[in-house]
Please model this.
Amino acid sequence: MLAGIITPAAAQRTLSLDSCRAMALRNNKQLSVAKLKQEVALNTRKAAKTKYLPKVDLLGGYEWTSQEVSLLKDSQKDMLGNLGTTASSALGEKATNMLGTLAQQGMITPQQAQALGNFMGSQIAPLAQTINGFGQGITDAFRTDTRNIFAAAVMLRQPIYMGGAITAANRMAEINEQLSANSFNAANQNTLYTIDQTYWTVVSLRQKERLAKSFLELVKKLDSDVHKMIQEGVATRADGLKVDVKVNEAEMAVTQVENGLSLAKMLLCQLCGLPVSDEITLADENTDNLSASAASAQFNMETAMSNRPELKMLENAVEISEQTTKLVRAAFLPQVALTGGYMVMNPNPFNGFEKEFSGVFNVGVLVRVPVWNWFEGAYKVRASKAATTMANLELDDAREKIELQVNQSSFKVKEANKRLAMAMKNAERAEENLRCANLGFKEGVMQSTEVMEAQTAWLQAHTQKIDAAIDVRLSQISLNKALGILN
Model:
């Protein structure tokens, strides 16, 4: 029996508000997403920094073509290949004409001219072949054989002036990192706000459950007394039926508040990352001085303007819009970059297209100057400036709304404090009224209906006291959130 009693008690987990907050911050999925966004923004900023540094690329390739690059025309190739034949034909024709002229002039006989012609013909033919071979050799030497081309290169690119685009991109990355941090802060405060509201809702329902059970005991006590009076004949059966109805209503109220408490605890477990079936107990559930604290309505508007993450995010949006304008303008300004590298090719174009690898260093300056774009740059800059103006207007509007929200939260805190003070006085009066009603009923000078009215007034007064005490805490939480100091 002892083990059966201790085990359920040990299964209960007692959670304070701070422990609930810590678990909610640790297990909230949206906060995890916000943290990952911060990591993305951090790496994006680091990547933007690399734009200042030189980039080195390694390129390589192979290409096959169906024809090679030719430095000679086909007619030139044919002429060089038949250079000896052409020369020998011209030389033989001139020699024949010269010998014929000499024979006609009687300087040599026709037999001598024919003999000389035969001798020269026998000597010119080998010479023609030799010259043809020499011409073909020249043709072959001019062949490039570029059907199979291999190339590789190492390239370096160093930006010198990009119109301010790199500086603007880096500034945007830094602002985006700040925006991610502010977004995380906003999600953090929203999580704390939700967990605080849920925590005090559970506490409120637990207090109301205790109140409903106390009310049920009062009604049952009255019901027992009335039935005894019926048996003694000093009360009617109608009085007993009225009290029975009140008992049923009280039991139904207990059931409803128990169901509401179970659902609220399930929600709190879900927000804290705990299984919804876990049995938990809150540190403030059974406190008797729930209404002992009073909220402070004092605030400084500058605190809200400097701490609200929503305003910081809008300020980041304005700064990003300004940098976007600079980035758009940079695209239409002159740009200068330094290039350099080393390139390797095969065939070697630096040595008669030999089948060998050969490399060459290169250094250059690349300048890009936009000349005419039909005012495209001016239109884009105007559009970007208009977007910046819109962002500034949204920021001003948000500041006005936050100022109104802070004032409203302050008024709610003051109102909650006043309501709590009135509820405490009403609860004291209801206690005294119920005491007098019970005393009068015992003395027989008051009827059961008057006692039930006093009990109902007692229940309403204490319910309002619980609501007022919880409202004080919730209004203070709302004010802290409006000021941006909920942490």
